[in-house]
Amino acid sequence: MTTLPSLGNGLAAEPIVARLLAQPGLQKVPSPKLDLFIARDFIGALLCEALIERIDAVRRPSTIADANGDATFRTSETGDLSATDPVVQAVEARLAAFTGLDPAYGEPLQGQRYAVGQEFKGHTDYFDPQGADFAQYCSVAGNRTWTVMVYLNQPEAGGATRFKAVDKIIQPETGKLVAWNNRRPDGSLNPATLHQGMKVRTGVKYVITKWYREREWA
Ligand SMILES: O=C(O)CCC(=O)C(=O)O
Ligand SMILES: [Fe+2]
């Protein structure tokens, strides 16, 4: 088996985009405004189930940076997944091979759970350099570069991810990956990555998220 090389932190987006485009079944959302990719069946249902179990074991109320006075802005639950767990390691290896993004720059894999009525309102995944919490979140590893997210199940209704600036609504499906560059090709932060996790209407929604940084995650 050949091992694909790591392609860095994603700030140089071109090699990451090329690696993604080489993956069978990958869809690029056609827009000049941002690099946004979708791949169905990125991981299988059994691995998704195992990850859901792990999330349920560690979940706690989600938080946001730069409190905005809206207590209902992000109402989901979040949990950090253990890097020593073989199930987590399997996903990490698959993510690294698929995207080329170097795991050394990645935050710990996180899980999110949304019950009926829960959501994450419109936001960007990068931290606002003018925001009150910027130093706290970014002084060590720098700001975020890429986001990679995988839906672990399919709620009966609701729970889509909406990218307003490009008028794209992505429906959750078990094992489906969504990846985007939080920057423009020149490396500047891209406000067109604004997105929201829409309210779950029926059922429950689970995702995993992996965020990459400018500098290594210690
Ligand atoms: O749950 C979703 O669809 C989006 C989640 C998200 O945007 C985030 O966790 O940053
Ligand atoms: Fe997000």
UniProtKB/TrEMBL annotation:
It comes from Sphingomonas kyungheensis. The lineage of its organism: Bacteria, Pseudomonadati, Pseudomonadota, Alphaproteobacteria, Sphingomonadales. This is 2OG-Fe(II) oxygenase. InterPro entries: Oxoglu/Fe-dep_dioxygenase_dom (IPR005123), P4HA-like (IPR045054), Pro_4_hyd_alph (IPR006620), Pro_4_hyd_alph_FE2OG_OXY (IPR044862). The keyword Metal-binding applies. Residues 105-214 form the Fe2OG dioxygenase domain. Its EC number is 1.14.11.-. Pfam families: 2OG-FeII_Oxy_3. Signal peptide: none annotated. Its cofactor is L-ascorbate. Gene3D superfamilies: q2cbj1_9rhob like domain.
